[in-house]
Write a structure and sequence with these properties.
The chain is built from twelve helices and five strands. The chain has 353 residues and is α+β, with helices and mostly antiparallel strands. The chain folds into two domains: 1-208, no CATH class; 216-345, Histidine kinase-like ATPase, C-terminal domain (Heat Shock Protein 90, 2-Layer Sandwich), CATH 3.30.565.10. Mean pLDDT is 82; it is low at 209-213 and 349-353.
């Protein structure tokens, strides 16, 4: 397809317009452009030979690319958006190529099937790589937690139990030879066992710590309760472990999501408002959407009423993340997506709990 360079240029421009991390990171764009080029080549071959062709061997490389993007904090939703954009551009190019040849509809259909298969199979392989990375990371985190628990038991509880046993051994020795010392031995055993019981309670308390106390979910619950909302229906859900994210990131994501919720409650006239925060080892992703009246983003900015939006955007971008706001006053509804990679904050030691 002679238009391949032009299509790739348009593809990058469209991704830049939505601030996709697939183009803000040059390494990610290199892999993205390579896969797009292969998809376009398959479409051109399918159009030429009147048979849908997809080079399956090349698609297998995308699984590794999915794992690599996960380490870069690039969520699967960005790949899906990129796939939709590429489909639109390639479809229009194919339609233009056969516009003057009605008899080429069969070849056009083969090329479109190749386009759909090429994008779909790559998204599937990338999602599998993403899931493999996430599963391996969760396993590593769980294993680290088990090792920490084992150290706590060995260093504190094990030492106290050994000390208690030694006191009992001394008690048996002194019971007949030095009876005046037996009372002190028993008291020492009791004290040691009491301390051990306290250690056990602390360990169990850490394992059973309330999921809402001091957490992001708890902060959102407290915010909604303070608003005393009776309408609309508002749901906030936090997924993942907050131990994966530095406290600074959790604090900022709370402020951004809270601002979006406030805007929806104040201006959207919605029936339902939903906020979902997903925390993963490689990044934090938030989605806030409502079914309200929508708004014209440009008009709001021109009227000087977008201070909250500007503040949220600045907070996200200072963390190296992206925020995308889509709203339509004609169709209704507003959708805000926020993505913050955690690779840039891996050196932070203070994490949420």
């Amino acid at each position: 397809m002679s238009r391949k360079p032009q299509l790739l240029k348009q593809y990058r421009l469209r991704l830049e317009q939505i601030k996709s991390p697939l183009v803000t990171d040059e390494g990610a764009w290199k892999g993205c452009a390579l896969q797009a080029e292969r998809i376009i080549t398959d479409c051109a071959d399918s159009l030429l030979h009147d048979k849908a062709q997809v080079r399956g061997s090349l698609i297998q490389q995308v699984q590794g690319l999915g794992m690599e993007r996960a380490t870069q904090g690039i969520y699967g939703v960005h790949s899906i958006r990129a796939g939709v954009i590429l489909f639109e551009l390639a479809f229009d190019a194919l339609a233009e190529a056969v516009a003057d040849s009605p008899g080429d509809l069969g070849r056009f259909g083969a090329a479109v099937r190749s386009l759909q298969m090429g994008i779909g199979e790559r998204l599937e392989a990338g999602a599998l790589g993403h899931d493999i990375y996430l599963l391996n990371t969760v396993r590593e985190v769980n294993a680290a937690g088990h090792r920490q628990l084992a150290r706590e038991i060995h260093d504190h509880l094990g030492n106290n139990v050994s000390l208690a046993l030694r006191q009992l051994e001394l008690y048996e020795i002194d019971r007949d030879k030095r009876p005046e010392h037996t009372e002190a031995r028993i008291a020492a055993v009791k004290a040691t066992l009491t301390e051990s019981l306290g250690i056990i309670r602390d360990l169990v308390g850490q394992l059973r710590r309330s999921e809402s106390e001091g957490t992001l979910q708890g902060a959102f619950t407290a915010f909604l309760e303070s608003m005393a909302i009776t309408h609309p229906e508002v749901r906030v859900q936090v997924n993942g472990s907050e131990e994966w994210a530095p406290q600074q990131v959790l604090d900022e994501i709370f402020l951004v999501v809270r601002e979006c919720l406030r805007n929806a409650l104040a201006h959207a006239d919605a029936q339902q408002v939903l906020a979902v925060v997903d925390i993963a080892p490689f990044g934090v992703h938030a989605l806030i959407e409502d079914d309200g009246c929508g708004f014209d983003l440009a008009a709001v900015g021109d009227a000087g009423l977008a201070n909250g939006i500007a503040s949220a955007t600045e907070r996200v971008e200072l963390l190296g993340g992206t925020i995308l706001i889509s709203s339509n006053p004609r169709a209704g509804g507003t959708r805000v997506t926020v993505s913050i990679p955690l690779s840039e904050h891996s050196g932070d030691t203070e994490s949420g709990s």
